[in-house]
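Table S2 (text version). Query chain:
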Amino acid sequence: MELLRIATAGSVDDGKSTLIGRLLYDSKAIYEDVLDSAMQVSRRQSVEYLNLALLTDGLRAEREQGITIDVAYRYFSTPKRKFILADTPGHVQYTRNMVTGASTADVALIIIDARNGVVEQSRRHAVIAGLLGIRHFVVCVNKMDLVGFSEDAFRPIQYDMHTLLDELQIESHHIIPISALEGDNVVEASDQMPWYVDGPLLAHLEGLELPDRSGGAPFRFPVQLVIRPMSNEYHDYRGYAGTIASGLVEVGQEIVVMPSGATTAVTAIESPRGDVERASEAEAVVIRVADNLDISRGAMFASVSQRPSVDNTLEAIVCWMSDRSTLKAGLMLRIKHTTHTARVTVSDLEYRININAVSDLELCDELKLNEIGQVMLRASDPLIFDRYSDSRVTGSFILIDEDTNETVGAGMIGRPPYLVAQGAPR
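Corresponding structure-token output:
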């Protein structure tokens, strides 16, 4: 069955963990010991009902405070599809955790409290999810039971989110009124809201169409490890291990080795299940080639006809994640891009993205914690990359503080489609 990766997002107390708990509970995807533990904690908290958020909030601090701190991953399936759910934090100081959870997602599931409407953190998470390349958005207007299941309470929120997502050029978005606590429009359609006729959340998630990952994208294979057994029996063996970032590769296929630009042919592909004739995106393999070339960790195998860019200079969107420092022009960091690490200098901070008005670009001197901006970077070594809009793997990177070894930023190469369309200043 096809796998769908979902990342939740939204402000604190909007009900993200409760919604995921409801999905798991109603789809019979909870282990008995987990359910028993949640029931015991609910009784200790003097709660008259099962606290569904306890099914995902696993840390002790989360259960005591009633908030989500770390990213919690939960797995379940239906007869139609398998799902991985990432329950991400809602607090502003944990926005960086949300970036981690959303970086591999196919769908952004944004939860909004019907009493509060679209707040700044809801907008922040929507903007970040859009920048991270998520093309499917589902917005759940939660706690409809607390506003009397009123259509008049739902429609203004629907309009505000439609406006924001249209501005971000998110073509696939759907907005659903729900009550996670009561189960309305989550797995089963609600009798309380006859004015909403587009079906419950789970049915919509089961029906989403995802792009074919089997081979439409150009082949990219960052070399992680060179395998040279120290044995007389295998004295002429040389294999290159890694995970295919995109596309597919076949035995006999001609490839180019970047950054040198040398071409060679694939002679063998080894996988955990033995030798195979072909392999595709996300598979971990060892590739052997016909020629003895200078290939080391950080090199990349690629399609001969669709080569990646090779350059020391990058234009990128960066989400700053450090509360100890700020991003400024002249700052020196380490960049980790695919399997390659190099020193990098922030040569220019072009502008900051205004979360409350994403079409407004603010000139600034620095980026602080959780702020997002467009920067120019200059690396000490040439990097082999694609635009993030073309490849999440070869178009993304992290920035590391050399003194503390702390990850201080996450970046996406190029500029998001909505900024390209409106002609953002270079």
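Notes on Table S2: The chain is about 20% helix and 35% strand. The CA atoms of residues 141 and 177 lie 5 Å apart.
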